[in-house]
């Protein structure tokens, strides 16, 4: 053993010090989490289930899609029939919507479970004191644990991409749709993960942290929709609303809702007036123009100028309006997508900072974690360490 | 009391107070531990040992008073303090899913010990605590005594100046206790300053350079084991009842103070109460006691009672020396 001064770190820049601290926690956490066969098995099962769901969507959708493609629907002239869609892309669209909904559900339930124990388990197993009495920064502890916990969810999401990419073969959704789907999934995973770690730092026990994290998740995913519906009912049925118009509650309530963002992503791929489109329209009313109806069926001679601002429209073809309707679905609204990403990221940031504060022992919580230009006494007053004579 | 050669204190507390929800856990402790000392805090469970240690380990903020480690206030710069201490709590867990060397490597990295040094140091530490052959074992396979030694090893990864060990031998079987004691002896040889606690004195007695006896948040005695034993044997507590007003009592206190064999003088009654009772620590045989009484009476003090009392400290000392409850450790 050498003098204690030797073990004191060389001055390092804040960023690289933070990064190496995070790496320390991360490698320790990953050793525990990914050791053995468990992670590998879970991942395999997950991808298999996704593939099965995709296949299920195919089995269910294929017959009706073929019928629709063969028979077609009535054209605006009321005589001829039009193949609005081809069988392949409606199958692809069905697979896309099934996968989107299912993956979001999984992420919403798995992310909080993986992080809710991150800090409280250390408290329960009485290892937190050992960790906190190291010079490790609380920020690095929280970030390292969060990244380690999210690594598995993110791996699951990434492993699901090839399954989603099946859709590209069928049509019905394109790369942009898949990217948007992934953006919602990743944002939701990070958001719910941070919510989990926040309650983990707040609660004494993992059980309590898990209950709180799931409650928060359900409030965001379902509670906000119920609140919005209730608000809408109350406003619509208000006595002052004499003509019974639909009065919508402020849509801001739904910004943090990953389900609404995902519904919007799926609605963008619908080229008939489907369930997702209907939901979006009930939320946003006339402000939402479903991509399915966006090119106002060229028969009326609609020009690009009629196109709603947030939809990318294809100019109607020069032939009869029939042809215009058969084109690929247009890329639609990203209204809720970006609002969700921004507001969820902001919430994550706030909760992560709060969690860092909560890791520090009470009483030492609101003081500066570290003084770069430490007091002179720190070094000058230190007695020279002398090796004991043998 | 007997900390003559204390230079540049590694631990210094001044009037340390910790209150939990109005309950006083530490009631004004002044502690001074110099470099290279092994200081044993001895006291019954709930005496305030753990609270004092947790304050020094930057896990608790004191309600009042100051705690300095190597001259750095624990609340002023906790991170700098943490670099200088190795802390072993009374209750702690280990990361079951890591191997022994990974466990130590993790903590070494937490202290930013550079890579090449880590490998060599882990080997050294495992040798000190006798876990060399367990290097690649999972922590969960270790016995309780081995875990205790592993935790002790973890406090050493950054070669700290000060070790704070809270009941390092609690819950161990006799053989493991002996092993733990041997390790502490070895650390003493390495020149570490150690603050160690126990609720049974024999565990620490011969190991420590000095001992502090602590009860109900107060440090009752501090000094080498021999000093404490001598002072307990020699010192009698005399209860003196005085029929006097305030000025009379003060005069009596002053008169007592002139006697070299008189230690502390405490008033155990409210001011103004008659008779006023003084508790006087007195280092002398019955003959000397008689002379003290005679001198008081000769000086005109109206003494209505003069008797020897048994002190709480004595009982406490019996308790911590293990004559009452040596088995409580299990």
Topology overview:
The complex is a heterodimer of chains A (390) and B (330).
Chain A: H1 14-34, H2 38-71, E1 73-74, E2 81-82, H3 87-115, H4 120-124, H5 128-132, H6 138-170, H7 175-202, H8 206-236, H9 258-267, H10 275-284, H11 321-325, H12 335-359, H13 377-380
Antiparallel strand pairs in A: 1-2
Helix pairs in contact in A: 1-6, 2-3, 2-6, 3-6, 3-7, 3-8, 3-9, 6-7, 6-12, 7-8, 7-9, 7-12, 9-10, 9-12
Chain B: E1 11-20, E2 23-33, E3 38-42, H1 49-56, E4 64-69, E5 72-73, H2 78-84, E6 85-88, H3 100-110, H4 115-129, H5 144-154, E7 162-165, H6 174-189, E8 193-198, E9 210-215, E10 218-223, H7 225-234, E11 235-242, H8 246-257, E12 262-267, E13 276-283, H9 286-298, E14 303-309, H10 312-320
* Shape annotation of chain A: globular
Radius of gyration of chain B: 24 Å
| Beta-strand content estimate of chain B | 25-35%
Structural class of chain A: mainly alpha
Low-confidence stretches of chain B: 1-6, 323-330
Proportion of residues in helical segments of chain A: 55-70%
Order of helices and strands of chain B: EEEHEEHEHHHEHEEEHEHEEHEH
Q: Could you tell me the radius of gyration of chain A in angstroms?
A: 27 Å
String of helices and strands of chain A:
HHEEHHHHHHHHHHH
Portion of residues in helices of chain B?
Answer: 25-40%
Quick overview:
The complex is a heterodimer of chains A (390) and B (330). Chain A has 390 residues and is an all-alpha fold.
Q: Explain this structure to me?
A:
Chain A is mostly helical and 390 residues long. In chain A, 62% of the residues lie in helices and 1% in strands. Chain A has a two-stranded antiparallel sheet with strand order 1-2. In chain A, a hairpin with a 6-residue loop joins strand 1 and strand 2 (81-82). In chain A, helix 3 packs parallel to helix 7 (175-202), helix 3 runs antiparallel to helix 9 and helix 9 (258-267) runs antiparallel to helix 12. Residues 1-9, 296-331 and 366-390 of chain A have low confidence and may be disordered. Chain B has 330 residues and is of the alpha/beta class. In chain B, 34% of the residues lie in helices and 27% in strands. Chain B has 10 helices and 14 strands. In chain B, strand 4 (64-69) and strand 5 (72-73) form a beta hairpin. Chain B starts with 10 loop residues before the first strand and ends in a 10-residue tail after the last helix. At the A-B interface, helix 1 and helix 5 of A face helix 2 and helix 3 of B.
